[in-house]
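**User:**
My hope is that you can spare some time for a protein that puzzles me. This is the protein in question:
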Amino acid sequence: MPTTPTKALETFANPAPDRDYTIRMQIPEFTCLCPRTGQPDFATLDLEYVPDRLCVELKSLKLYIWSFRDRGAYHEAVTNEIVDHLDATLRARFLRLTARFNVRGGICTTVVADRRQDAWEPQPKAVLP
């Protein structure tokens, strides 16, 4: 069982590939380093995706997120890097990552990046009485 960070994301087959459904995860312990000062940056990541054929395995996602801990990265760059890697691995119908970074120097930064398959359209919103 690996106990070190890794860039390898593992997947498993979507148990309901004929249905659109959303998987939401909150990752409250993301850290990376400020590329200018070397000080730690902390963020909560909110990941949501509509799987196509694959789902991400949670332990591998945890170890993947851990791999950023000692890396210098701008908020915008690291958010888009994670989205690109998840998109390349999962090819989800829709994927969105919201990265809410803690205050630094009086500024809170939130970066939102998403990807969707070209032909995919979300289901119409259900309005209930």
Q: What stands out?
A: The chain has a mean pLDDT of 95. The chain has two helices and six strands.
